[in-house]
């Protein structure tokens, strides 16, 4: 049946039928990918975050669907569709998603370990966090590559007091660093991030080529990556729309 999507009544019928289709595919046919679409539908169309959270969680636990683990982890972290924000539960579900080869879950799990926090339920672990970012980067997650590049640009200092991180500019160069500054690695991860479409990685590449940091100085390459970063920025500004069935951003 063809719907006239300019007709309000037909749009409502279409949306209602879509929900019925997703429920049948999830609950009767037990298709994990359809369960995830059902949760996206509940989130984006119905705005029923509590029901969406339950479907995401069940789809992760019962059907081992990595994208649903990622979404429920995000819900738990934000307190969306749940009683309150719970970073430990968020971490656990990001871990499940990462183990199911969902790169964004590896990224989020790693960031929870790396970033400064006052959450006693999560142990600060920069090395493990960076390993998770590397796994995400190798799985073509551009943001993970970018974060790794940034960490190698500034280094990560050991902080025996609170287990927090600090940049090179905040401490004496004589201090011992848990992760030392390494411009060669910074360049490699920036190159990977840029090739995957991260405009900040491209901007960093431009600076590295301009200064000769981690790579031989090359003004032509510096201009090339500067232009690429600016072009990506224009695309981002002109494409700020939500695609159908993508769901809400975390």
TrEMBL record:
<dbReference type="Pfam" id="PF08238">
    <property type="entry name" value="Sel1"/>
</dbReference>
<comment type="similarity">
    <text>Belongs to the hcp beta-lactamase family.</text>
</comment>
<dbReference type="GO" id="GO:0005758">
    <property type="term" value="C:mitochondrial intermembrane space"/>
</dbReference>
<keyword id="KW-0677">Repeat</keyword>
<protein>
    <recommendedName>
        <fullName>Cytochrome c oxidase assembly factor 7 homolog</fullName>
    </recommendedName>
</protein>
<dbReference type="InterPro" id="IPR011990">
    <property type="entry name" value="TPR-like_helical_dom_sf"/>
</dbReference>
<dbReference type="InterPro" id="IPR006597">
    <property type="entry name" value="Sel1-like"/>
</dbReference>
<dbReference type="InterPro" id="IPR040239">
    <property type="entry name" value="HcpB-like"/>
</dbReference>
């Amino acid at each position: 049946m063809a719907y006239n999507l300019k007709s309000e009544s037909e749009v409502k019928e279409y949306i209602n039928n879509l929900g019925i289709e997703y429920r049948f595919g999830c609950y009767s046919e037990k298709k994990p990918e359809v369960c995830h679409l059902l949760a996206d539908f509940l989130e984006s169309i119905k705005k029923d975050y509590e029901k969406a959270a339950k479907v995401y969680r069940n789809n992760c636990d019962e059907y081992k669907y990595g994208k649903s683990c990622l979404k429920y982890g995000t819900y738990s972290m934000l307190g969306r569709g749940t009683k309150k924000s719970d970073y430990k539960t968020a971490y656990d579900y990001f871990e499940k998603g990462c183990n199911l080869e969902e790169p964004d879950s590896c990224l989020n799990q790693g960031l929870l370990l790396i970033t400064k926090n006052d959450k006693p339920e999560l142990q600060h672990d920069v090395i493990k966090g960076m390993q998770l970012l590397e796994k995400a980067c190798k799985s073509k997650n551009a943001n993970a590559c970018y974060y790794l590049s940034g960490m190698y640009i500034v280094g990560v200092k050991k902080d025996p007091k609170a287990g927090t991180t600090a940049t090179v500019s905040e401490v004496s160069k004589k201090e011992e660093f848990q992760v030392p500054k390494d411009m060669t690695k910074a360049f490699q991860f920036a190159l990977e991030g840029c090739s995957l479409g991260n405009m900040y990685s491209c901007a960093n590449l431009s600076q590295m080529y301009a200064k000769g940091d981690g790579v031989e100085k090359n003004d032509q390459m510096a201009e090339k990556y500067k232009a690429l970063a600016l072009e990506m920025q224009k695309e981002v500004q002109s494409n700020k729309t939500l695609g159908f069935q993508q769901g809400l951003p975390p």
